[in-house]
Amino acid sequence: MQAVLAQTSSGLSATGILYITLAFIFLTGIITAVATKWSRDKCLRFFNHYHITLEGMRGHARWGNLKVFSSGVEIVHDHAYVDHRGRKKTSYMIYQNEMDQQILGLFRYHDELTPDEQQNRLRQIQYTFNLGPIRRTLRGIRNVLNTLRDAFNTAIGAVVGQYQNLHPGSAVLSMQGSNVTTIGQTLLGKFANAYEPLLEQYIGRQVIMEVTDPLDPNNRTVEYAGYLADYTSNFIALFNVEHETSQEVTITLPDIDHGDRLPPLPLPPAPGTPTIELPPPIKVENDLAIRIDGVYFHIHNTRNDPVVVRTLERQGFEPLSFGMVIPPRGHLDLPARDAHGAVLRVEHIRCLDVIALRKYAVVRYAGELVERRGIVDELHLKQLPLVPKLMDMVADRDGDSQRPEEATGIDDD
User: Fold this and answer.
1) Residue 370: band (very low, low, confident or very high) from pLDDT cuts 50, 70, 90
2) What b/e readout covers 204-221, taking b as 16+ CB neighbours within 10 angstroms?
3) Ranges of each domain in the chain
4) Alpha-helical segments (H) within 103-217
5) φ and ψ at 58, to 5 degrees?
């Protein structure tokens, strides 16, 4: 009896503490795993399961259907790619720790999507740029959480520590305090949002984004115009509702199937030094410079606007559809054995959907001015049913209080 009373007075038994400890360990692991699994970048999610073109750090373009994961992205090629050694490659994977080393930008062009993707894209734009009061409120809460994230993390630790001080006999909390803090910080970190007041005011409005070429020592930039869809700590997303073609041209590739290798690109030179120069091209046609690089054609876009490669047509073979974008100063490599003497059908375009890496991209210009918002706009009070009526009543009262000649527009003359 005394043993039972001693066990009761001291709280839970050792077995109960062990079970609760295991439960906390599994709970912490499950919450962290689930939060990590679903914590995909908001900007990258815009292009998930769409046909896109990825521009690498050195201008090389890859295209296919994008799959976004919490640990990276995968580009599934339209057709299985067989290299010069006969190895088949059906997709290309980039892991999370390689993002800022391999991705400069992603591009989505409406005309190169399937009909279902086109309909989904239009619905996505409508949903993105028409926020209701509930979604605006949730976004505001996330912005507040991100702004005060450090304070909330400190508060969680302080609450757990204070409870331990007030209840020193609670063996469970004294042993699991770190797990409780980890759960709170994990949920807070996944729910919070990257918040920048300078960009927040232009969500859904016209802006111009500059993307720096990391290989250019003179820091030349490429400008993309569009409507700011969203931003995160790693990416910026711009949408354009209409994707228009400015010119359609054809490019005839040289009738050769191999040549000398191009010299490898060196590391970016120091600022102020001359830019990296490639050997003279075999031909330049419609602002596309064509070189031979061993067993590949190296097609370089010298324009300030992106181009879309539609199809490759070669006599005696079925036309091959591409639907990929060559960004400004970007390039496309094609196997010379399959493309020599072929004709490329190319479209010059001015606008498309872009996601750029924030390490090299910045929203530089506003396409339209935004007036300073008042408390009614900040708190979204106009969404409430009675507020617009009250504001109209106040406006009518102020109009009636004007001088007769001001209200009617009649002068004393």
Assistant:
1) low
2) eeebebbbbbebbbeeeb
3) 2-38+134-191, 39-129+204-370, 375-406
4) 115-128, 133-147, 149-166, 171-191, 197-200
5) -105, 25
Between helix 14-37 and helix 171-191 the angle, nearest 10°, is: 10
Rounded to whole angstroms, the Cα distance separating 146 from 192 reads 5
Question: How many angstroms separate the CA atoms of 330 and 352, rounded?
Answer: 16
Whole-number Cα distances in Å, 51 to 34, 116, 170: 27, 11, 56
79 Cβ contact partners less than 8 Å away, ≥ 6 residues apart: 320
State the pLDDT at residue 197: 85
3-state helix, strand, coil in the chain (%, to 5): 35, 30, 35
Establish how many alpha carbons lie within 13 A of residue 247's alpha carbon, considering only the half-sphere containing its beta carbon: 10
Tell which residue, 383, 354, 339, 377, has the closest CA to residue 238: 354
Sheet (strand 221-231) strand order: 88-95, 72-82, 61-69, 51-55, 105-108, 353-357, 235-239, 221-231, 206-212, 361-366
More confident: 200 or 237: 237
Q: Compute CA distances 218 → 201, 214, 329, 372, whole Å.
A: 31, 10, 14, 36
SS3 55: strand
Task: Give counts: helices (H), strands (E), the chain.
Answer: 13, 18
Angle, helices 171-191 vs 149-166, to 10°: value is 170
Model confidence, pTM: 0.73
Return the amino acid letter for 170.
S
* Nearest in space to 211 (alpha carbons), one of 278, 304, 289: 304
* Contact criterion met (CB below 8 Å) for 216 and 346: no
Q: Which of 32-36, 215-219, 227-231, 405-409 has the highest mean pLDDT?
A: 227-231
- In the three-class reduction of DSSP (H, G, I as helix; E, B as strand; rest coil), residue 67 is classed as strand
Please name the residues in contact with 100: beta carbons below 8 A apart, sequence gap of 6 or more.
234, 357, 359
307: CB partners within 8 A, 6+ apart: 287, 288, 301, 325, 326, 346, 347, 348, 349
Whether the CB-CB separation of 360 and 211 falls below 8 Å is answered with yes
Counting Cβ atoms within 10 Å, is residue 225 exposed (0-12), middle (13-18) or buried (19+)? middle
The whole-angstrom separation of Cα 363 and Cα 202 is: 10
Fill in the amino acid letter for 307: V
